[in-house]
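Q: Predict the assembly, please.
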Amino acid sequence: MKIDFSLVTRRTFLNTIFGGWLAAFIGGSFYGLLKFAFPTLGKEPDFVILKPEDFLNIPTNSVKPFAWGGKLGLFFKHSDGKTVALKGVCTHMECNITYLPQDKKFYCACHKGWFDENGKNIEGPPPKPLEFFDVSVEGDKLIVAKKGIKVELPKA
Amino acid sequence: MNCPRLKSWFSERYNFDEIRDLAKQKFVPNHKYEIWYYTGGITLFLFIIQFITGIVLSFYYIPYFEHAHKSIIEIVTKLNMGWFFRSLHHWGAQIAIVMLFIHVWSTLLLKAYRKPREFIWVSGFILLGIAIFFGLSGYLLLWDERAFAAVRVATGGAGNFPVVGGFIKAFLRGGIDVTGDTLTRFYAFHVSVLPLITFCLIGLHVILVQYHGMSVPISVEKEKLKETPFFPNFVYKDLIIWLIVLGIVVTLATLAPPEIGKKADPLAPAPENIKPEWYFLFLFQTLKLFPGEILGMNGETIAILLISAGILFFFLIPFFDRKSQRGERSTLFTWIGIIYFLYFVIMTVIGFIS
Amino acid sequence: MKRIFTALAGIFISATDLFAQQDKIDVFPTVPYERFIVYQNLFIFWIGIIGLIVIIKMKLREIERIQKMGIDKEGKDIPVLD
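A: Predicted assembly structure:
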């Protein structure tokens, strides 16, 4: 149906799409800027200190959970005795994962995601491998730290 | 956006008509060199980007020498899009200095400095020096090995000025050597002193441009030129160019984020093949040309005197170029401008290759 | 004897320092998943910029059309940025 007169003037039309697109562009750019300017609340710790006797003697091919800030951390002993620590959080939607010793894999029940014993995402929706930590023992302390962080203990 | 009620609320209290009429009178002449008119605006836009990214980075950067390097690593690894804003700040700085040089040389070769616009050149030249100092002070804030050695060389070089050299060096360094005090001082320069001075000088520079109008090169001055109004035509053209520049800088920032080296150790030897930032390379190379001693006098001091003379002459070109002051074509000074440009480019390239 | 000892100690200490080299610091997300998001966002950003440029060019065409007709001189209250 052809109408005789345009519903809006050219000026209104141009100014509207200009203003709208400009608002979206600036809004999007400032969103990124603000995400940077306002840091995420509830940052994770740089490192946690555990008691060595509680963790170093767990049986092979098993995990023991520990607190990583408010999230789950897993202390894992491979079948060959090697010990590592990782964040027990699925990289898909942040559910807690579990270790299945008979399959030697980590499993996330939320959407049936699977990780192998090195944390690599092998099946299901998880897009990234699991996050591992650096483990070290200093005297009577077991230190689990984020990778790359230099831990400085207070001289108590 | 119309909002007539909002407009009438303001117009009942303030008379905007004069400002509007003034704005409507600003025109930009059309001729074959008009593309160079954009360079000043692009440089301004890039400096605005630097202000914004600098402000947000300063929320997280710690200007104490013990923590400076680590705070940058934290910004880059831990914070949301931290790597991006640091990269944007880095690339914004590089492109801003490139555009600044293009702007300076285009005004030089098109003789925009001639009468009556000498003060625009003077304020612009001071701004150039400030921009270079911005680059130097910002670079030290990294506090990695390269930055530390580069600042040592730069402030040490300043110390070779006769008579005032020692004083300048001590003022810049905050002491005898480059230390944590230097970092604090350079941070103060970079974040408060230089921005304030820049703000005032850019204000003066832009107001003078409005007062005098756009300069037209001598070769096209005689023709009767068409003009486009600044509001709204040129504003939109400027905006298009600025958007393209923003896209380029963002792309560079995303695809080529800068590295950060090991934390600086004042007692460690200088790393191999240390080189200053690219816009200092031509000075660096020039210094290398001079032998250690000339006729019993310190070679470096002579080099610095000659370089200063060269820069001083550059600064005073509007006052030396009598022909262009009279409105005549001045090919001598065009050649001088080209020689300065070629010297800069060639020495920079040699500095890169060696 | 003391000198030889201190020299050897110095060599050993600087040798161990070689192993203490920092790993290269990641200045860009390494995980491919995050990389894709970054490149996607760059692409969307460019779409935004090109869209804005197209719209501004449309506005400029309209402004020049009006100015050629000369009707912009008519009213006193015409907005400065049309």
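Chain C has a mean pLDDT of 73. Helices of chain C lie at 2-19, 32-69.
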